[in-house]
Amino acid sequence: MNCSEFMSFYEVQCKELKLPMESGDVASWIAMNDITPANLDVLHSFLTAMQTRKHDQQVKTLKKLSRLPQKKPCRFDSFDMSLLNSVAQKQLQSLATLSFINARRNVIMIGPTGTGKTHLAMAIGNACCEARMKAYFITMDELKDRFRDAIRSGSEGKLLNGLAKNSCLIIDEIGYCHFDRSETLLFFQLIDRFGLKETGSIVLTSNKDTSQWKDLFEEDDALECAIDRLWDEALCYTFTGRSYRGKNQEFVSLDFLELKN
Question: The pTM is what?
């Protein structure tokens, strides 16, 4: 590696690793100390190793903060696509690029229980963390609890600001609990804050069609506004078919022998 190539590499790593020496100082140091191309190769390898270590630590921290289960992490490559047609497979591959986040488009997944919605939602979250973007996973029931606690303590703004800082907010299982009027208004404000951001998306999963969502909330006007903003240019996926759950079950017939006295 020659000096020009190394300096181009160093300028990138200097910002990434927040190194104290400016590129001009490094170039002077190389010239004054007769650093050879072989020496530059070693420095290149060392800085690359540092950058890789920093990247891995950041990803680990982001995954921990995301609340995504990591014992058996859900990923796109572990999703069984064998039952999908070619068009559906291409759509999911496009989803894995995370381009929808920079495009400020939400993702809505609707379908029966056990058809893979949560797996894909978590896969999106893990992909975000690996790309060093903030993701956060929460069920609708947990979100209701957070809203209720925030209302009691008067910390609604703090909660909304914290949730809105994520590049991708994943809300799972819409339809398993009911929001009262105050909680519905907070839900609308949360959607509104994401709509005002330059980047960021909300991923929703539900086993209920949006026509049934009105039964889950109390404030009709706020709900209508929230749904309109969620659906505006959203990527909508409808899941059909049988549940994936239990596909690895084994059934064993047990014949008990009659005991003789």
Answer: 0.84
Q: What is the pLDDT of residues 151-202, one digit of tens each?
A: 999 999 999 999 999 999 999 999 889 999 999 889 988 988 887 776 789 9
Is the pLDDT at 255 greater than 70, yes or no? no
Cα distance between residue 96 and residue 205, in whole Å: 16
Regarding whether 216 and 128 lie in a shared domain, the answer is: yes
Closest CA to 58 of 4, 135, 119, 117: 135
189 and 211 assigned to the same domain: yes
Q: In what order do the strands lie in the sheet with 107-110?
A: 135-139, 168-174, 201-206, 107-110, 235-238
Q: Give the integer Cα–Cα distance in Å for 113 and 240.
A: 10
Residues 88 and 45 in one domain: no
What does the angle CA 116 – CA 117 – CA 118 come to, to the nearest 5 degrees?
A: 95
